């Protein structure tokens, strides 16, 4: 069924930590039953003609960080790349990601497939640091994209040049937010599309002065038309604001 949808690859998510998934043995819960995890992967590889990849975590908890064993066994059944999130399931998203085991997997001479690192990549500088320190073949970015879809161009630019890009202007952010809104509604319908966009829009305009009231409107407006009107207001009121300006002094609204 997944193959019939026409993707370029099939990625198996053995990394989801949420209770309703992992608690019943799916997602990162599969790390507690490695033979089953490997057998499921083997059957999927055999059943499809597309490349099969896997994303997972370091292990279930600090006492069972078994990613090195898992990586070798998944490679042996035919996956073509492995993404590793540098936390255990028990950590959820707390604390800092531990990249040392990601590096250990990547630098194991028996590993032949690409290893992609994931966890706490929130800037071009951090991406370059993790790539260079641990030698991974690629980087995955997750939560840092919320309200900041331009992070990918920031990372690409930094990796290519070693220089940080200027942050997008308010006008650029409004234009991106409009596109994001349109695509979200197109894919999910108005109700769900607007609802799921809220957590992104609340971060699109972080740092704008006196923005508390407008932010509250953004995260409560139920219609796409209403969100578009609020974006019009943001452009009219803050469109010429320059985050790099030091005159007059800028006071951040951190609410």
What does this structure look like?
There is one protein chain. The protein has 255 residues and is α/β, with parallel strands linked by helices. It has ten helices and five strands, in the order E-H-H-E-H-E-H-E-H-E-H-H-H-H-H. Strands 1-2-3-4-5 form a five-stranded parallel beta sheet, with helices on one face. The longest helix has 19 residues, at 170-188. The protein is globular.
The proportion of strand residues reads: 5-15%
The chain-level structural class is: alpha/beta
Report the strand count.
5
Reading side by side through the largest sheet, how are the strands ordered? Answer: 1-2-3-4-5
Q: How many strands, what sense, and barrel or not for the largest sheet?
A: 5 strands, parallel
Q: State the end-to-end CA separation.
A: 45 Å
- H and E string: EHHEHEHEHEHHHHH
Helix content: 40-55%
Rg over C-alpha atoms, rounded to the nearest angstrom: 21 Å
**Oligomer description:** single chain
- Give the averaged pLDDT, no decimals: 91
Number of helices: 10
**C-alpha geometry:** globular
Low-pLDDT parts are 245-255
Which descriptors apply to this entry?
255 residues; alpha/beta; 5-stranded parallel beta sheet; 10 helices; 5 strands; 44% helix; globular; disordered C terminus
